[in-house]
Write a sequence for this structure.
């Protein structure tokens, strides 16, 4: 690795703001403290949004599970290479829908019964090789620290020092397409760059001692599902299992990474990330983005829309999502543009913005 001194990109984020202004007067700074608080936002949310209906939630589970098995049975019966690619796209999307339902179990929005949430969450997430409690806990950490450069759990920006090491070691593939869209299983095993631990290990620093039993339970369920898949490979053959399960699994992974990444990246204007005294739960949350996924919105239970009801309160802090066609093909452009430009943030400063490393943005992989 080169021993050349590192150049610090910014001290306090002011130069990024200057770049965005580009010599013109700007009447809104997304990094400025908002004139409202969490109580104002909560008051704007309609009361029916707070109601947890387990029967309605279970009806979504029944619908999605029926579609999953129906797609598998119909495609296996037809067994045509004209049908298999359509099946992979559709089934991978349905695996993603199952994940979203398990996600809601983890948040407690599926029902007000923790035992029901845990049972349903384990069944849904284990079926797609996700350790329910391990991920639930790390996802809680993400929401408690969203928008914080160091403390956020997933899809947080890397520092200049980290990206410098990637480029110096010729490991820039790790931040280029398609790797970020395949990252989720690797994240489950070893977390994000710069962090240690695993979602499967009860002694990981992700968890406190009181959570060990939960983590062990989920790891056992994950292992049981993995063993079932191995058994099915022996029973019906690895190629049929590849076509029926494993290719859709990777489509699901791409959906998960695609949606999650674009919930925190890819806006036309640069959005701030915080650390130190400038970070707060509210300011971090205001950097997230709603997205319109067209027909997919209903299939994946509107996971792309979080804040529309609070638009009157949020004002310019709400970024209206671009209207999608039947399929959200327009978001592919947002993804590619962001991955070409949003590479790292400064190692110092309490309000920072993504910057571009020319060695990465010029890669043919992203062209």
């Amino acid at each position: 690795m080169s021993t050349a001194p590192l150049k610090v990109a910014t001290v306090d984020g002011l130069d990024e703001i200057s770049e965005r202004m580009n010599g013109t007067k700007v009447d809104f700074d997304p990094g400025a403290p908002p004139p409202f608080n969490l109580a104002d936002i909560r008051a704007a949310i309609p009361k029916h949004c707070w109601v947890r209906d387990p029967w309605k939630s279970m009806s979504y589970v029944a619908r999605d599970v029926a579609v999953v098995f129906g797609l598998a049975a119909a495609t296996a019966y037809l067994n045509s290479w004209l049908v298999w690619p359509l099946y992979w796209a559709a089934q991978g999307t349905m695996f993603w829908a199952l994940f979203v339902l398990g996600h809601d179990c983890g948040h407690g929005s599926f029902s007000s019964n923790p035992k029901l949430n845990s049972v349903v969450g384990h069944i849904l997430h284990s079926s797609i090789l996700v350790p329910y409690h391990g991920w639930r806990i790390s996802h809680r950490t993400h929401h408690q620290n969203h928008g914080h450069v160091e403390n956020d759990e997933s899809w947080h920006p890397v520092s200049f020092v980290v990206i410098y090491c990637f480029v110096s070691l010729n490991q820039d593939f790790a931040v280029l397409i398609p790797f970020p869209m395949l990252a989720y299983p690797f994240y489950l095993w070893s977390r994000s760059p710069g962090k240690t631990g695993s979602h499967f290990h009860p002694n990981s620093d992700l968890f406190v001692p009181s959570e060990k039993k939960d983590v062990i339970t989920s790891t056992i369920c994950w292992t049981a599902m993995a063993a079932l898949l191995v058994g099915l490979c022996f029973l019906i053959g690895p190629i049929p299992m590849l076509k029926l399960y494993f290719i859709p699994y990777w489509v699901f992974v791409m959906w998960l990474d695609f949606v999650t990444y674009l919930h925190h990246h890819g806006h036309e204007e640069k959005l701030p990330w915080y650390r130190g005294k400038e970070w707060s739960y509210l300011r971090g949350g205001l950097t997230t983005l709603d997205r319109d996924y067209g027909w997919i919105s209903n299939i994946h239970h509107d996971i792309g829309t979080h804040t529309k009801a609070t638009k009157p309160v949020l004002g310019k802090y709400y970024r209206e999502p671009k209207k999608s066609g039947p399929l959200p093909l327009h978001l592919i452009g947002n993804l590619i543009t962001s991955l070409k430009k949003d590479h790292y943030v400064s190692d110092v400063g309490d309000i920072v913005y993504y910057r571009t490393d020319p060695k990465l943005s010029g890669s043919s992989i992203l062209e």
Observations:
- The first strand starts at residue 273 and ends at 274.
- The chain has one domain: 14-23+41-366.
